[in-house]
Design a protein that fits this description.
Radius of gyration of chain A: 23 Å
Shape of chain A: extended
Order of helices and strands of chain A: HHEEHHHHHHEE
Helix content of chain B: over 70%
Oligomer: heterodimer
Largest sheet of chain B: none
Number of strands of chain B: 0
Number of domains of chain B: 2
Shape of chain B: globular
Strand content of chain B: under 5%
Strand content of chain A: 15-25%
Largest sheet of chain A: 4 strands, antiparallel
Strand order of the largest sheet of chain A: 2-1-3-4
Number of helices of chain A: 8
């Protein structure tokens, strides 16, 4: 019978074996399953393969939310294959919207402070990890600056709109409501 | 270990290292073209570390300031990142270039994820692929490279297991619901396009989408076979392509870096010998 991978690894190098075993155990323990109480806390950069695995709300009138960006009157619209060009807008804008809705106070700040207090570390240190109010307020100017680099155009006007949409029975998209988040 | 096997591993290590490093450089060039290198972020202001310990330590260390806020240090980081990859491609046996590149690539990934405000996994399989090159001995390299193949199978196999445990597999209309969620933005921005019309038609015929989604889940589950045999690795490469195309079309995501390294990790070792022989015919291997 062929010798197993772990057996060959152990024979070759104990240190390498321990490293791989710890990593393999971590891969199993840190898995984002619903039996794991920390499933929604991605504690390490690598064990993050749980996307699209939980049940989702299937209400027929359910709204889908997204943000669209207009610069100099033009819509920022790229195909999926150019996903990388969009990530610094599509992933940062929901976080900005979330913090803005909380009065420009990063909700993570108080959570970090509570954890630090439990660890007997000065809770003020939380502000080094989360976002400062001043930085959040500078986001619209940053987005303009970044989009200028990204598109290669000088941007005189930038607008971000949040949209709540749904699909009707005919598969046609209906916009329920819209709200301008940034008008710079 | 016989001398012959040792020579084979040595040759395979050279070609695999070079191939992966060239692929890393291409992935980094894609990032450069997309204006997502730390030096191209126009001094970002918003971050998100979440509860990720690596991200929290990164934020606490203040290293992000050096990599994104000061043009000189940000450019210096680029020089080192691309330089280490290029040097390792030229000198595949110098494992210290691999250690340097691995650290810099991890820094690059964490920097991107902190400032993009989301823990993206696009590049992590690629980062793990750099670890075998950090080994000094060829035997250690060969064993870690074999381990990478197992991990690639785990990445997809575990997503299937999670779908069973977390419930997505058992929700009949999961396919239709996720498709609507993921394509809503595209449909809004591209009214009247062929793809928009196709999405509308599919939403009316949701059963097809739901069945298709279950096939994608099963394709992920196929990777569990990889833990027991290497016989179906070519089939798994095909499954990887199938998952990539389906998620690009119906989930609006583009995990191109992950697809490439998945294919490389699953490529049978004999194929590397063939590639190596093809190159050796025209040019002797540089040690």
């Amino acid at each position: 019978m062929k010798e197993s991978y772990f057996s060959r690894l152990r024979k070759h190098s104990k240190r390498l074996y321990i490293f791989v075993v710890i990593y393999a155990i971590g891969s199993i323990l840190m898995i984002q399953s619903r039996v794991n109480p920390y499933m929604f806390f991605e504690m390490t950069p690598v064990f993050t393969w749980g996307m699209f695995s939980t049940n989702i709300d299937a209400a027929p009138e359910k709204n889908y939310v997204f943000y669209d960006l207009k610069y100099n009157g033009k819509t920022f619209n790229l195909p999926t294959a150019q996903d990388h060009w969009k990530i610094f807008f599509s992933y940062t804008i929901p976080n900005y919207d979330n913090i803005k809705a909380n009065g420009y106070e990063d909700p993570l700040n108080s959570k970090y402070a509570a954890v630090l207090q439990k660890l007997h570390i000065d809770p003020a240190f939380a502000s080094h990890i989360s976002n400062k109010r001043n930085d959040v307020q500078r986001y619209p100017q940053w987005l303009k600056r970044y989009m200028e680099n990204n598109t290669g155009e000088q941007i005189t006007h930038l607008e971000v709109t949040k949209r709540w949409v749904k699909f009707d029975a005919g598969g046609i998209l209906q916009v329920d409501s819209s709200k301008i988040i940034i008008n710079e | 270990m016989s001398k012959e096997i040792h020579i084979t591993i040595e040759k395979q290590r050279l070609i695999i290292t070079r191939f992966v490093m060239i692929y890393c450089i291409l992935c980094l060039l894609l990032r450069a073209m997309a204006h997502t290198l730390p030096s191209q972020l126009a001094q970002p202001v918003l971050t998100r570390a979440g509860y990720n310990i690596a991200h929290i330590l990164y934020r606490a260390s203040g290293i992000g300031e050096w990599l994104t806020q000061y043009p000189f240090t940000a450019q210096l980081f680029n020089v080192f990142l691309f330089g280490a990859a290029a040097l390792l491609a030229v000198f595949p046996r110098k494992n210290y270039f691999a250690v340097l590149f691995s650290i810099l690539l991890l820094l690059f990934i964490i920097t991107t994820n902190i400032y993009v405000n989301f823990n993206q996994h696009y590049l992590f399989l690629l980062w793990l692929a750099t670890l075998p090159f950090c080994m000094r001995s060829d035997r250690s390299f060969a064993l870690l490279w074999e381990g990478l193949r197992f991990y690639a199978c785990w990445v997809y196999g575990s997503t299937f297991i999670l779908k069973l445990i977390n419930g997505a597999m058992w929700q009949w209309d999961y396919g239709l619901q996720t498709m609507k969620e993921q394509v809503a933005e595209y449909v809004f921005l591209n009214p009247g396009s062929t793809l928009t019309m196709a999405y509308s038609w599919l939403i009316q015929h949701g059963t097809l989408v739901n069945i298709g989604q279950k096939f994608v889940f099963l394709a992920e589950g196929m990777f569990l076979i990889g833990f027991f045999t290497r016989k179906y690795d070519r089939f798994l490469i095909f499954m990887g392509l199938f998952i990539f195309i389906s998620t690009a079309l119906f989930a609006n995501v583009f995990f191109i870096e992950q697809l490439g390294i998945l294919i490389v990790a699953l490529l049978p070792l004999k194929e590397w010998d063939k590639i190596n022989n093809r190159f050796r015919r025209s040019k002797p291997a540089v040690l």
